[in-house]
Amino acid sequence: MNEEGMSEDGVIKLLEEARSMDIDYRRVFSSMCTIPHPIAVKAYNMFIASNAGDPGIFKGTKKLEEETIELIGDLLHKRDAYGYVSTGGTESNLQAIRMARNIKKRRRPNFVVSEMGHFSFEKAGDILGVETRRADVKEDLTVDINSVEELIDENTIGIVGIAGTTEFGQIDPIDELSKLALNEDLFLHIDAAFGGFVIPFLKKKYPFDFDLEGVSSISIDPHKMGMSVIPAGGLLVRRKEDLMDLEVDTPYLSSKSQYTLSGTRSGAAIAAVYAVLKYLGRKGLKKIVGRCLDLTNELVDRMRKFDVHPVGEPKMNVLALNVPNLDAVFKELWRKGWCVSMTRRPRALRLVIMPHIDGAIIEEFSNDLGEMISNIV
Ligand code: 0PR
Q: Exposed end of the chain (fewer CB within 10 Å): N or C?
């Protein structure tokens, strides 16, 4: 570090240089994040110095967080749910497994999640000393309930359902998992980090939230389809006592205890989530989801003309395409400035059609992809 500080212009220039290396969202199909809504940015800036980890000082922020959890709870059929705004799906998933572990108290604990579950469950298992058991999926890439049942034993602390898988956007049979959890007296966590702000607005109804009696907790990320600022996740819990199982004493703070993972927490992120939900309402969120789904369907239709088809029927704005000569096409797409990703099993081209994508981009992308397929194959 230099002894003397730089000029503001000098610093800004350095920042601009770095930012110019970041890829613009316009051609990004590989991300589950998007450009935040302007109201989120405004709210974020207003609360830039707020620490939600010290609610005795930031009373207004605390109130906003409570109201935010109520708004999200309402969307998930439980207005009086408990919870907090986390840093994202990873933290929410980790905290959910931590809750299950603290409730069940097994000597060699394990939990069961679909092989399609996000890698954050691997981190959670590792950090918490809980074995992560991966269940098979059916042909439709949703978890096989028989496989889940087979993996459950006396040391199982909980099971997980995925409402919107990272790779294929599929929705596990959460109603079946809910019945199983009730029968086996197990904690059931739902990872709706992506799907939480999508599924409630689909034409077809998929039961996935607190409406199902067996659902204990839900991850739902405002920084994905909730149009908010990174980092903003949500952890919602049915029973207060489950959340309180995470509490540690915070003797010298303005509050006596904390159930959150981070101590110091962004009040700005909370304000951003609150502002978006208030500003857009259900109608506004539904419109955004509807537009993403229309664009997804348009892309599917355009690719069918090149005899390229999706892996299964897309349920939401996550699309896996069966592309011939995938590796070569993938490389060529990146060379042309398209940010795309691949699924593992089955291998396919993975596209997430986020709100920053528009009709012109869908047209340009599908033409490029179609041409590449015709040339490479
Ligand atoms: N659960 C699900 C279903 C997810 O899809 C993800 C992330 C998580 C949990 C973890 O959430 P956080 O990353 O917020 O902790 N899914 C995306 C993925 O891994 C995250 C992502 C977003 C990756 C934007 C890249 C990117 O540019 O693909």
A: N
